[in-house]
Amino acid sequence: MASDHATDLGPLDLAPLDLERLREGIVALADAAGAAILKIYATDFAVTKKADASPVTAADVASQRVIIEGLARLTPSVPVIAEESQAPSFAERRGWRRFWLVDPLDGTKEFVKRNGEFSVNIALVEDGVPVLGVVHAPVAGITYTGVAAHAGHAASAWRFDAEGGAHPIHTRPPENGVVRVMVSRSHSNEATQAFIEKLRQEYGAVETIARGSAIKSCLVADGTAHFYPRLGPTMWWDTAAAQAVLMAAGGEMVANGEGLPLRYSGDVLSNPGFVASFLSHLSAQS
After folding, report:
1. What is 178-277's CATH topology?
2. What pTM was estimated for this model as a whole?
3. Measured between alpha carbons, how far apart are the two ends of the chain, in Å?
């Protein structure tokens, strides 16, 4: 029997959700997943390799279990695509207009290095667009959230700090001729360096800031940085939550060379190279 609660809606039903109320539940869920991660982070955990040679730990699995169980309580009829589960076939999900994207531990390489730069990413996607995103950094105790404009509510993006403070965030343009660019600790290439050089020619001075995980895009969203080029392959669950935060804060995440926002539809679960920017509708040419 279908529930009468607003959050119990099927994948083909796009009746409006109370995204603000749902955000509260997802923030709490991400925090719980982060706590599960930290329990394992404090131990001498083992690291194994997946088929694609990327690392996986018990923390990835524990976090995903917390999130999947929590989403089943919050939105029992909305399907989930999560990194550590077998993805449904396109034939199964081609009719989905609303679904969750979950990366239970984004930045496993940083987790293994014990540098604290990893995150929990949870996004709600509607018609290919991330409309709610939560990115939680367990070690720092910081959570970024973004909600798209809906039902008379303007888009909003927030940063919650470890002490309980809540701060609205917005992207900011470069000041004093200095542009700050987020770069990956684990994924860099010649295309990224060429993009940075183009920024140097356009803006003048360029300062690079290295971080791991989806936090890089969130630091563009809160005005700490102005661009984050990721000019290599990523998966949907790597980007959707941070894209929701960035869009709600006034920025955009666009496919490199196309100037079009990343979308989450179709048969392939990977993204093209992209640029996260303080600008909306950036035309990012390689």
Report:
1. D-Maltodextrin-Binding Protein; domain 2 (3.40.190)
2. 0.91
3. 51
